[in-house]
Design a protein that fits this description.
This protein has 442 residues and is of the alpha+beta class. It has two domains: 165 residues, no CATH class; 250 residues, no CATH class. It contains 16 helices and ten strands. A hairpin with a 2-residue loop joins strand 1 and strand 2. The protein is elongated, with a radius of gyration of 24 Å.
């Protein structure tokens, strides 16, 4: 399983390299439109395709990004101003279908709180539009990633939306009245929650797989997933409502450290714990449900930090929160379903079904398919995975190989557990421990 460990540890995220959505705030009145956009200027200057990665370490020009991060805020502002023509050619605002011409109204690069934080740059733009225009549309080049568009200073149902892939927002009324309905907001936040698990939430994926590999039986799996869901739903809701802000204040005032900097190492530790317990216990221990619930509370705070990046519309706060949580749950269930499908044939043979040759053929085909995907590295799968195909196809290929091996040694006691579940848990434990050390000490 050393290959699995190598594959996934190489993707361990550093907060300074995380890809975050950009946020646009728009105000318009009497033919004048003012826009402020919070962006990762270093990523834009380095020409990194923010639509296809979740971590700039995986970008082709990662070294250029790191070199730009080493520059002072004023140097970045100067470079962005020099690059203004390129940026503005990739940015579009339409008034009744006609493009608005903007001029640079200033660039401010805010110092990062620490070396592990993404540095935010605020771009200010001003333009003019026909006073009789009724609708705006906003968009930018797909390479710039996700853009959250917010209409400000509007009393009458302001528009809030998300755009990516080089598309434009739907038309929204300049004077307000284009706010999404509760159902629309609910539906729009489901993919945001799902995306945070698959493919972006590698740490949460490994935690869920740690729950799965305890015992591939319905009762212990349902108990664990249900408790985990209940716990992270509680803290996600409390954090979104602002009821956990006292923790931020306490850790900043007492230890001069952000609370999320405590949560992230503990999430990594939770991954290591569940995996280690899988190795030494064959079923649901008396204490494991309580531990899973406690870890679920931590993961909920991690989900909340991501949701804070997107924000919640004031007029539809609850639908957005529920939609995000539903997306998270669907993502978790998708992870479990995929892994269950991968090991199902090996489990059937381990439980006495005479399907040996069928299992060998099936895992042989799956293994070859996974290797072919790694070799071909098709762009469409890179886009779906938002990263290198080998990061997911490589571990799956190894799981298929281990499943075939467990079928070969089917006459041994607990062959599936010894050959598949325990090695997989060892790999997950090592990755979790590595992430804990990295996030806590490096």
């Amino acid at each position: 399983m050393s290959s699995i460990i190598t594959l996934i540890v190489m993707s361990a995220p550093l907060r300074a390299h995380e890809v975050l959505p950009s946020i646009l705030n728009l105000r318009a009145d009497d033919g004048i439109i003012l826009i402020e956009i919070d962006v990762n200027a270093e990523a834009i200057l380095a020409s990194i395709d923010l639509s296809s990665i979740v971590d700039t370490d995986n970008a082709e020009n990662a070294s250029g990004y790191d070199a730009l991060r080493a520059l002072s805020p004023q140097e970045i502002a100067n470079r962005f101003d020099a690059n203004w023509a390129t940026f503005i050619s990739n940015f579009t605002v339409l008034a009744d279908g006609e493009p608005i011409t903007f001029r640079d109204n200033g660039t401010i690069v805010y110092p990062a709180d620490n070396d592990e934080a993404v540095r935010i740059t605020r771009l200010s733009l001003v333009g003019e539009y026909p006073v009789d225009a009724t609708e705006f549309q906003v968009g930018w080049a797909g390479i710039y990633g996700t853009l959250i568009v917010r209409q400000n200073d509007i009393a009458n149902a302001p528009f809030t939306g998300t755009v990516s892939g080089g598309e434009l927002t739907p038309p929204f009324l300049i004077n307000g009245g284009s706010a999404q309905t509760g159902w629309q907001v609910f539906a729009s936040y489901i993919p945001i929650g799902f995306d945070h698990i698959v493919p972006k939430g590698l740490d949460h994926i490994l935690f869920v797989l740690g729950l799965f590999f305890l015992a591939a039986r319905m009762k212990p799996l349902l108990v664990q997933v249900s408790l985990f869901t209940l716990a992270h739903t509680i803290t996600l809701a409390l954090a979104a409502l602002g009821h956990t802000s006292f923790l931020d204040d306490f850790f900043l005032n007492t230890f001069n450290i952000e609370f999320i900097a405590i949560v992230e190492p503990l999430i990594a530790l939770s991954i290591a714990y569940v995996a280690v317990e899988n190795i030494f216990t064959k079923g649901l221990s008396p204490w494991r449900p309580y531990v899973i619930f406690a870890f679920g509370l931590l993961h909920g705070l991690g989900f909340a930090s991501v949701l804070a990046e997107f924000g919640l519309p004031e007029h539809a706060f609850v639908p957005a929160l529920i939609g995000f949580n539903v997306g998270v749950e669907v993502g978790q269930l998708a992870v479990i379903a995929v892994m269950f499908a991968c090991v199902w044939q090996a489990l059937r043979v381990d439980r006495g079904k005479n399907e040996v040759m069928q299992g060998f053929v099936l895992y042989g085909v799956f293994f070859v398919a996974a290797i072919a995907l790694i070799a071909l590295n098709p762009p469409v799968l890179q886009a779906l995975a938002e990263g290198p195909v080998w990061l997911f196809a490589g571990p799956l290929a190894l799981v298929f190989a281990l499943c075939a091996l467990s079928i070969h040694f089917r006459d041994h006691v607990a062959a599936y557990r010894q050959i598949v579940a325990i090695p997989a848990s060892v790999a997950i434990a090592v990755i979790g421990a590595y992430w804990f050390i990295e996030r806590a000490f490096l």
